[in-house]
């Protein structure tokens, strides 16, 4: 299935493009927090995860999945222990998807649609790695929130949530990000998927606290080809999808000045991300989704 | 403004189309959604607004085009009020100019124009005037107006015609024309006041006084004494080569004058005779031309008298002489040796018109020749077989006519062939007592003025039953039809319920039979409708050839009927003097038209009569009652309807041009942008 194509709109799994999943199966999502923990030694158990190589036992604490309790040890010691294996560190992945009205823009498929595929793919990938995954859909409010958990059915719950998301309202990060900070206490990976039509300063104000609290932030910056290089032949009256305001622009401006301005904005967002020690990935919604993830994960792997 | 065809207003719903198209166009192409305009900059050129304005202008033009188009179809008319409103001090001068034939005499008409101009010069500042002409009819030349230049301009275009003025008819027409006006009237009648134009009843010359308005009659005579005048009163063909001309002395005293009379036939001068004519007052003196040669068919006879007197227009007279050979008519009979054939042939050949009977055996008859004959005779309708009956049916349906009688061969039949009337039981009555004529429809052309029907001895008839489609012209006792007419399609079927062998009745040997056959022939061939010498403005009855009118050409050469009218028109008015030509399938027919002879009588009404007329008109008037302080406007009543469809057409043309230019500019604009 290609991006933007759906064979059954109501099927929750339609976002999981098999071609995308098959290409991602040989890659491992290495959370920035794991890498950071490995490098800084701040992470409590950055090197251990749920892989096949057994490492040791540890006592069960509240919050651990009861499925991982070794019942043989319990029968012998009458104490609950959890089996630990060498591999990726179990981590929290929070997927923040922007569903503001501007995300509805796109010729063949909207940025929101693209964002939904990306979010679902990341969630699925994390789910295979037994990471706790959560999601938040926001515009100028929190539309839906699902706390991070590794319980079964989480993936399907997130996918169902994504399915119902629609592009409405404007983009105001303060309120949803404040609420997000209130709910997420554990450190983990935070993926923000948005077109970032906002002031970089505002972005900095709202995202920086997450980084300061130890969250690894990945910013997937979605842009439609027509946004990057608009191609109009005559003066056109554009209507802002969020505010409804109209402006008449001439083609010379749109073909010469506008791409420069957009590039400057993207550069400003990227600079802001760098300032927060976050990764900024610019994704053209015209390029295949699997290739975009592959490029990202390859890049991350190199960094790791 | 009023609309003569307001139903066309429903077409205004059509303006929804350009509105819908423009809305669709604007929404589809003018506005595009974009994720964010935060990095965009307003264009210096407000192209969109310009284009939107252009779109609106284009849409407005298209809507206006549709509205004007619909408006043009609704036939709007404006009612324009006269220039001046009527007040208590306003006098309405009704100038009536006599333009009848007699006004051609001498300088009568020039004098009438001069009198009218004098009246206009003497109009008061608050006065209004209207101009009418009176001849065969009264025509409005200028509606009530205070603008004397308009009336003066109209006067210059007037000239006398060839009609006859009847003063009584003129006053009646004037009454209806000026009935709605609210002003004080002065009727200025400028005429030669012919005695012959005076109404039979003096009261007919007094205008009605409507709404209590005072009416004054001012008589303006263009001549004050009688004028002697010779005119060609009659042209008679007394023998096949003799023409008698009558010259009338139209004066109140004995007159004699030497005149040369020229007789032209078909535009070729045949003879000139100079003779001194002497006749008493209103008497006629005759002159006879002998050895005159006529051509076959209708001949044009033009009589010209010289030297001319002061009224030369009536020294000419046109006449038509029909020198056609006896008209052929088919007599269909199963027994050519029968008495019926003898009786019918004799009656037809002795008729005034003269008919040449072509006897045909009904058993060997070729129906294809029927179309050459306007009507035929059948001595015993019972001899018609089924196939011939169908042919005859088609012949009558197409405009032919049949005169038929029953006979021995009709006995035993259940219905009359062609006519379709049923015969009750197929039996004949044969009673001891003879039948008697009960009712004769003398109003019918065939029986008009005929006497002698009551003296018939009728012993046998057929029990024919008629329905609403048949017209019984003669009834016997016991309500038995004796003469039946039925119109079939465009033709006629005339049936005698007796044989013509002098067996069932003695009709064939009675004098009424000859006159009946002659009148029936005239009726069935439509000749009765045609009067070949007519007076101007009279009506010519058409339907000369089996219901088909044919084309009619005026003396000027103009064809008067449209293609549809050539088969439908029943009459036309003869408005020109000279020869009208009626072209039908069978032949060309000429009709001569002359001015009314009474117009040649230039004796005028006596002064006392005119004085009495003026006095009686004044006496019949009463004071006008005005509402205090309120001027009565005549705008509504005498307003003139002005059609504005021409203006609308010009506007439509301008809009189409503008729309094209604007639309073209829009296209040019697009091309320019594409190149960027």
TrEMBL record, chain A:
Superkingdom of origin organism: Bacteria
Protein name: DUF58 domain-containing protein
Native source organism of the sequence: SAR86 cluster bacterium
InterPro entries linked to this entry: DUF58 (IPR002881), vWFA_dom_sf (IPR036465)
Location of the DUF58 domain: 56-252
One protein family per Pfam: DUF58
SUPFAM superfamilies, A to Z: vWA-like
Annotated signal sequence range: none
Lineage: Bacteria, Pseudomonadati, Pseudomonadota, Gammaproteobacteria, SAR86 cluster
Automatic annotation (TrEMBL), chain B:
Domain Aerotolerance regulator N-terminal intervals: 1-76
InterPro entries membership: Aerotolerance_reg_N, Class_I_gatase-like, Double_TM_dom, VWF_A, vWFA_dom_sf
TM spans (from-to): 6-24, 55-73
Organism name: SAR86 cluster bacterium
Keywords: Membrane, Transmembrane, Transmembrane helix
Lineage, highest ranks first: Bacteria, Pseudomonadati, Pseudomonadota, Gammaproteobacteria, SAR86 cluster
SUPFAM superfamilies given in the database record: Class I glutamine amidotransferase-like (SSF52317), vWA-like (SSF53300)
Protein name (record): VWFA domain-containing protein
Domain of life of the native organism: Bacteria
Domain VWFA: 94-192
Coiled coil: none
């Amino acid at each position: 299935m290609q991006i933007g194509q759906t064979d059954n709109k109501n099927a929750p799994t339609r976002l999981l493009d098999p071609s995308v999943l098959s290409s991602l199966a040989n890659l491992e999502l290495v959370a920035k927090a794991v890498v950071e923990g490995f490098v800084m030694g701040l992470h409590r158990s950055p090197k251990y995860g749920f892989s096949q190589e057994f490492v040791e036992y540890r006592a069960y604490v509240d919050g651990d999945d009861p499925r991982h309790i070794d019942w043989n040890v319990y029968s012998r010691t009458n104490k609950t222990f959890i089996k630990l294996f060498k591999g990726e560190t179990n981590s929290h992945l929070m997927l923040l998807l922007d569903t503001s009205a501007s995300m509805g823009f796109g010729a063949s498929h909207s940025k929101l649609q693209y964002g939904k595929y990306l979010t679902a793919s990341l969630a699925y990938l994390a789910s295979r790695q037994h990471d706790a995954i959560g999601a938040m859909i926001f515009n100028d409010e929190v539309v839906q929130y699902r706390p991070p958990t590794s319980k079964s059915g989480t993936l399907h719950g997130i996918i169902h949530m994504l399915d119902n998301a629609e592009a409405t309202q404007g983009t105001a990060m303060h309120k949803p990000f404040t609420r997000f900070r209130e709910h997420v206490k554990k450190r983990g990976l935070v993926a923000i998927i948005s077109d970032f039509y906002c002031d970089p300063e505002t972005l900095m104000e709202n995202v920086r606290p997450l980084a300061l609290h130890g969250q690894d932030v990945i910013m997937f910056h979605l842009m439609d080809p027509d946004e990057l290089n608009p191609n109009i032949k005559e003066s056109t009256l554009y209507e802002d999808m969020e505010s409804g305001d109209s402006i008449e622009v001439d083609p010379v401006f749109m073909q010469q000045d506008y791409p420069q301005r957009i590039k400057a904005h993207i550069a400003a967002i990227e600079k802001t991300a760098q300032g927060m020690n976050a990764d900024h990935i610019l994704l053209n919604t015209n390029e295949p989704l699997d290739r975009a993830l592959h490029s990202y994960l390859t890049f991350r792997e190199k960094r790791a | 403004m009023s609309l003569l065809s307001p139903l066309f207003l429903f077409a205004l719903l059509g303006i929804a189309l350009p509105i819908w198209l423009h809305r669709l166009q604007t929404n589809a192409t003018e506005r595009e959604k974009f994720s964010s305009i935060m990095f965009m900059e307003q264009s210096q050129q407000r192209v969109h607004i310009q284009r939107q304005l252009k779109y609106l202008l284009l849409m407005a033009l298209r809507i206006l085009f549709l509205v004007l188009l619909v408006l043009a179809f609704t036939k709007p008319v404006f009612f324009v009020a006269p220039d001046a409103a009527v007040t208590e001090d306003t006098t309405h001068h009704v100038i009536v100019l006599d333009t009848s034939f007699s006004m051609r005499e001498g300088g009568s008409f020039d004098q009438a124009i001069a009198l009218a101009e004098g009246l206009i010069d003497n109009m008061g500042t608050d006065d209004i005037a209207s101009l009418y002409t009176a001849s065969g009819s009264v025509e409005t030349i200028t509606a009530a107006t205070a603008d004397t230049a308009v009336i003066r301009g109209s006067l210059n275009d007037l000239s006398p015609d060839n009609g006859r003025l009847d003063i009584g008819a003129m006053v009646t027409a004037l009454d209806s024309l000026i009935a709605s006006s609210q002003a004080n009237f002065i009727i200025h009648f400028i005429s030669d006041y012919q005695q012959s134009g005076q109404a039979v009843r003096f009261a007919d010359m007094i205008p009605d006084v409507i709404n209590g308005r005072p009416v004054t009659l001012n008589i303006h005579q263009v001549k004050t004494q009688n004028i002697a005048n010779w005119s060609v009163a009659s042209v008679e063909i007394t023998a096949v080569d003799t023409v008698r001309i009558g010259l009338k002395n139209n004066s109140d005293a004995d007159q004699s004058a030497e005149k040369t009379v020229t007789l032209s036939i078909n535009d070729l001068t045949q003879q000139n005779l100079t003779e001194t004519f002497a006749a008493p007052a209103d008497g006629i003196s005759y002159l006879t031309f002998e050895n005159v040669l006529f051509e076959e068919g209708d001949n044009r006879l033009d009589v010209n008298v010289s030297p001319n007197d002061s009224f030369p227009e009536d020294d000419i007279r046109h006449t038509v002489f029909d020198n056609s050979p006896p008209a052929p008519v088919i007599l269909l009979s199963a027994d050519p040796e029968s008495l019926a054939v003898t009786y019918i042939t004799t009656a037809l050949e002795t008729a005034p018109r003269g008919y040449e009977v072509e006897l045909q055996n009904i058993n060997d008859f070729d129906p294809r020749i029927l179309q050459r004959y306007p009507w035929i005779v059948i001595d015993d309708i019972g001899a018609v077989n089924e196939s011939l009956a169908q042919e005859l049916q088609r012949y009558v349906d197409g405009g032919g006519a049949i005169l038929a009688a029953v006979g021995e061969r009709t006995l035993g039949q259940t219905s009359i062939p062609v006519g379709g009337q049923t015969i009750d039981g197929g039996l004949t009555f044969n009673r001891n007592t003879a039948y008697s004529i009960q009712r004769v429809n003398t109003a019918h052309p065939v029986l008009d003025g005929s006497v002698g029907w009551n003296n018939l001895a009728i012993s046998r008839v057929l029990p024919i039953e008629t329905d609403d489609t048949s017209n019984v012209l003669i009834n016997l006792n016991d309500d038995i039809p004796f003469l039946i007419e039925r119109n079939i399609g465009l033709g006629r079927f005339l049936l005698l319920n007796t044989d013509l062998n002098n067996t069932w009745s003695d009709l064939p040997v009675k004098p009424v039979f000859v006159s009946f056959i002659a009148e029936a022939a005239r009726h069935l061939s439509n000749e009765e409708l045609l009067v070949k010498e007519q007076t101007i403005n009279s009506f010519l009855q058409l339907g000369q050839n089996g219901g088909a009118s044919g084309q009619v050409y005026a003396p000027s050469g103009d064809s008067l009927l449209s293609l549809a009218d050539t088969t439908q028109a029943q009459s036309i008015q003869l408005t020109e003097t000279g020869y009208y030509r009626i072209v039908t399938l069978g032949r060309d027919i000429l009709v001569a038209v002359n001015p009314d002879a009474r117009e040649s009588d230039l004796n005028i009404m006596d002064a006392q009569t005119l004085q009495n007329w003026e006095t009686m008109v004044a006496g019949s008037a009463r004071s006008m009652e005005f509402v205090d302080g309120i001027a009565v406007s005549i705008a509504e009543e005498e307003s003139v309807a002005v059609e504005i469809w021409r203006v609308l057409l010009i506007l439509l043309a301008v809009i189409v041009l503008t729309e094209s230019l604007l639309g073209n500019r829009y296209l040019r604009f697009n091309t320019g942008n594409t190149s960027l």
